[in-house]
Amino acid sequence: DTRDPTSLRTPIVAVLGHVDHGKTSLLDKIRGSAVIEGEAGAITQHIGATAVPLDIISTIAGDLVDPDDFDLPGLLFIDTPGHHSFTTLRSRGGALADIAILVVDVNDGFQPQTLEALDILRRSETPFIVAANKIDTVPGWNANEDSPINDTYEAQSDRVRERLDENLYEIIGNLSDEGFSADLYWRVQNFQRNVGVVPVSAMTGEGVPDLLTVMMGLSQRYMKEEMEIDVAGPGVGTVLEVKEEKGFGTTVDTVLYDGTIRSDDQLVVGGQNEPIVTDVRALLQPRPLAEIRTESRFEKVDEVSAASGIKVAAPELADAMAGAPVRVVRDRDLDEVIAEVQAE
Ligand code: GTP
Ligand code: MG
Question: Any idea which positions bind GTP (predicted)?
Fold first, then answer.
């Protein structure tokens, strides 16, 4: 490995919001694949991780993102389900995230899981922006595929613009009621103090260039130091899901947020009763732009560095728990690592 020992990892972005407000569609638009069509029913039952490299972000954002202005490698998106019964998946996603997108249907406005997501973000102190989604459903909307918001805004009639503005200001008002000072993103100077609202359509791609630009800018500006990791160090992550996998037995879908995990590493994983000490049998990684739950797209890899979503196959994982810590032992004292896992 010829990389600098400290390097900048990919920020982890949780996508949160009320059921059907368009979280999966938005990611789907970004990655340009049809994960949504493979979903059972309308509910997202799993958390998936999607790595979007900087050059793809730059392609989508067009003139808005010059890759030379950024040294973060891209963004790692975690989709979460909006259905009310999946509170733990949402909290887990929120707790893991460096930054978040709260998706709000611009016509439907604030709903119970919007408020719940805000609570999660408030408690975990995760910086976020609001994607005011489905702008194409404003009656009379004149769609301009994949266009930046400013261009498409100018192409609307006064009536349509007023209608959209009304809905956007209602969302800004709701955020204010919840104690978040917010404004349309192009008016926000300091994204640490104010929440930027980005009008988008996951259907037409309008505003998606803006959304990615704001996310990259926010990460670069405010998270750069937090993204500095010892990339070759022992891996640290969190279990998103425990799953049986044909040919591999029990596996843990893990988001790695620090260091590296190798296919010959010893691991300590949080278990239902006590920490599990085990050896990696296989590391299964989604290809770039693929989704962790689309099994056919896995490839066996020798090592993975943060941040990534990976499936770890290892013996003894039957007692592993979603939300539990995963730590690589490598040349450290096993008892110390066990103690760290117990303390989390
Ligand atoms: P859960 O995972 O169940 O919480 O829902 P979700 O937030 O992931 O919503 P999803 O992306 O599944 O979208 C719900 C429905 O809204 C689908 O029928 C989408 O096609 C539709 N939809 C999403 N975004 C847009 C949009 O920008 N415009 C329009 N017109 N429809 C949209
Ligand atoms: Mg979904």
Answer: 17-24, 79-83, 133-136
Averaged pLDDT in 10-residue chunks for the chain of 344 residues: 66 94 92 44 43 79 77 86 77 85 97 96 93 97 95 97 98 97 95 93 95 90 81 91 87 92 97 96 71 61 89 94 93 96 90
Rg (CA), the chain: 20
Query: Which secondary structure element, helix H or strand E, spans residue 251, and what is its range?
Result: strand 249-258
63 is in an annotated binding site: no
Residue type, 53: P
Q: How far apart are CA 244 and CA 82, in angstroms?
A: 24
Contact between 174 and 109 under an 8 Å Cβ cutoff? The reply is yes
Residue with tokens 């010059």: 66
d(CA 200, CA 144): 11
Pocket lining: 46 vs ligand 1, CB cutoff 6 Å: no
How buried is 194 (Cβ within 10 angstroms: 0-12 exposed, 13-18 middle, 19+ buried)?
A: middle
Is 80's C-beta closer than 6 angstroms to any atom of ligand 1? no
**At CA 45, angle to CA 171 and CA 56, rounded to 5?**
65
Nearest to 131 by CA among 65, 68, 185: 185
CA 224–ligand 2 middle distance (angstroms): 29
- pTM of the complete model: 0.87
User: Is the ipTM here above 0.90?
Assistant: yes
> What is the rounded CA–CA span in Å between residue 26 and residue 101?
10
Q: Is 160 part of any known ligand binding site?
A: no
